[in-house]
Amino acid sequence: MTEEYPIDLSKFINIKEAEKDKAASILVHIEYYITQKNLDPIIKHAISEVTKGLLSSQSHGMDHFNVVTIFPINFQKKNMDMKLIVNLSRVMIQLFPKKLLKYYVYNPPKIFNIMWGALRIVMDKDLRQKVVLVKPDNTIISNLDNNEEFNIL
Q1: In the predicted structure, residue 151 carries a pLDDT above the cut 70
Q2: What is the mean pLDDT of residues 3-7?
Q3: d(C-alpha 17, C-alpha 77), whole Å
Q4: Scanning 39, 44, 56, 151, which has its CA 20 to 30 A from the CA of 13?
Q5: In sequence order, which residues have a C-beta less than 8 Å from that of residue 19 and are 6 or more positions away?
Q6: How many angstroms separate the CA atoms of 75 and 80, rounded?
């Protein structure tokens, strides 16, 4: 966190290094995000972290990574920044095509239905099949393939 930028980007997006037979994971902690007008520092940081994660996986013989987005229990619609979600998704898809192994969404809030509607527009079928929603108790809610609709209770 700096005077110019009020988010500690290293807490918001960071990596879990790859291990033997386990790809690196890019961790996105939504609780550390505050809506910003200037998204460039976030996107640059995300690109840097994804690159580190991919290199970590490659050092273990794998050419992919996972993304894990963690929503806090008290997540509210006012904390959602669709502009960031769409822009970051597009950049990652363009720069790292076919490198994503799985995209885990932990504790998806009810508002995720709206988020999914926007994200689905920029995702192809292969990418949609990699998205997995997971409840806080680690049970899988849905594997979002085939453009399916879902409802988080």
Answers
A1: no
A2: 68
A3: 31
A4: 151
A5: 60
A6: 8
